[in-house]
Amino acid sequence: MKKVLLLKAVKPGEEGDLYVQALAKENYEVSLCSPISFKFTNLQQLTASLQQPSKFSGIIFSSPRTVQAVEKCLPDLGQDGLPGWKPLTAYCVGQATANSVRDDLGLNPVGEQSGNAQNLAKIILEGTKAGSKPLLFPCGTLRRETIPDSLQKAGVDFKAHVVYETIPHPDLEASINQYFEKLIAIGPTTKTAMEQAGYRVAYTAEKPSPECLITALQTLEGT
Fold this sequence. Notes:
Blueprint: E1 2-7, H1 18-25, E2 28-33, E3 36-40, H2 43-50, E4 58-61, H3 64-77, E5 89-92, H4 95-105, E6 109-110, H5 117-127, E7 135-140, H6 146-153, E8 158-168, H7 172-179, E9 184-185, H8 188-196, E10 203-204, H9 210-221
Helix pairs in contact: 1-9, 2-3, 3-4, 5-6
């Protein structure tokens, strides 16, 4: 059985990775390693905002990491949970983020079926009027501007805190060096990023899908 090291982040709450399952059906032994990690930052500023729920109309959670950042602030708030935030709206992108908001913070999520930032922005604008108190918006360094741009265009105020940075996983280089000879990019964008980081890409999958990855592997095996 041939071995494959799959560099892919595992989504919270994900029971089985589709790529691992597809490769296993083709008799590949797969090891999964996340290529990225997260470093939390500016939590003091976030804590200061969380201590003043009366100044906000709600909070936006755009990823599970933003929930984790708020959770890390709880001990410094000197209270059990976020009682002052429970009457306010907690907007969430996706089911995994909503589950964390509900289970870890004790808040009632809105927008868990949105699936992406564009749909969540519509839900936020439906529930928030221009001139309302600002929304608290913890985010990462690589945030997309979909939500901020939509809110600004509609005149909805928000206060953003960058609370985490996306960094290379500390075990990434060791995993790559010990594991394999040929590197495959899962798509053109990934290929560019890998080459900019100094890696030599042997082959690029046509599209970021399990099927195209298998085709890429089979093509390399035939060369």
